[in-house]
Amino acid sequence: MSNFTLPLNLAPNESSPEWMNKADNAWQLVAATMVGLQSVPGLIILYGGAVKKKWAVNSAFMALYAFACVLVCWVCWGYRLSFGEKFIPVWGQVNVALNQEYLLGPAFSGAFPVSTMVFFQFVFAAITLILIAGALLGRMNFYAWMLFVPLWLTFSYTFVAFSIWSLEGWLALKGIIDYSGGYVIHLSSGVAGFTAAYWVGPRLTKDRERFPPNNIILMLAGAGLLWMGWTGFNGGDPYSVSTDASLAVLNTHICAATSLLTWLFLDIIFFRKASVIGAVQGMITGLVCITPAAGVVEGWAAIIMGICSGSIPWFTMMVVHKRSELLQRVDDTMAVFHTHAIAGCLGGILTGLFAKPSLCNLFYAKYAHYVGLFYGFREGRVHAGFRQIGIQLLGILFVVVVNVVVTSLVCLLVQLIFPLRMSDEDMEVGDDAIHGEEAYAIWGDGEKLDAASY
Length: 454
Fold this sequence. Notes:
CATH class: Mainly Alpha
Shape: globular
Strand order of the largest sheet: 1-2
Number of strands: 2
Number of helices: 19
Structural class: mainly alpha
Distance between the termini: 58 Å
Mean pLDDT: 92
Order of helices and strands: HHEEHHHHHHHHHHHHHHHHH
CATH topology: Ammonium transporter fold
Oligomer: single chain
CATH architecture: Orthogonal Bundle
């Protein structure tokens, strides 16, 4: 028999009020945890394995710091700026999300408490900053990164999140479709990462020319956590244990697998090598591309999106990048511009083509308000289909402009306090110079032998 007793001031039914759906709440907490695991430890070990040995600690630590910093900022002001009462069309009112009365009340879906919603949305905000870090690995001053994270979260992420995801956001009211963050997370992180990489400057020339992963198996483990964690990433966004959630999960994995295979085949055809790094990039572009559409498209559309996401970002990375002076000038370490910005744009546009009205109704509860162009032609609602494409393109333009402008301003502000780029001397040494620690502490490598120990 349990010794647990309820506090004297809490009635037996108050911990599970009638408005709360226990199954929905449980799934939302599980989904949030899965998304959190994509960052900690997923991207921590992916970054730690994908960089040169001398950058393993710094790269992993940038991700770990961002995760912790975002959480504190999120509950103090970030959540209410993103999902609170409207202040202006792109921003909520400044307020904390720590009041018990507020946290225990129903979230806007009405099926689980606000505290669950705060946690679920936090892991999305955190992974966005960690994805930005991917563009800056191997040269950004860690102290500059410490200041960049809260500033960018406050003045860029919250603007886009409120505009697209808040019920009062201006793009949400226009009818943009961003099921789970193709715009808010991936397009934002890709553009912001590329912009920040421009301001921070490049790695050492020898690091740009040769930057082999120090542990591909470790990188694959991180990639696996990222892939499987996407079950919660897209499956949690209906905010209920629903058929739409199940469809979103299945479409997510279909698109990712198709994209991985497409990228792999292109590598084999043109380079005569089956690259595991290329396969991981194809997996990521597939996951990013399906994210704005996951629960509002059919399975055949998910396959088409996978083919597109495995080929178009491949082309921009392998062909366009090598011929573009601008792209060559900016040192984007993990190619987040291609894997997130290009794939995010692609996903947003394809969503505008393939969004099925009846599936949109499952998610938005507004039948015929969201019509993909393909179904516009099919159902004789061509104007509605073209309108949807127009809104998707408007969303891309908004996200790009906000992130280029705000990221540039944040970098310029941070630069007044800390240098954005490490010194060349520190970049020569890496982790040991910056943190006094190394990823692989093998005797004779970065450590002096103490003769007195014999």
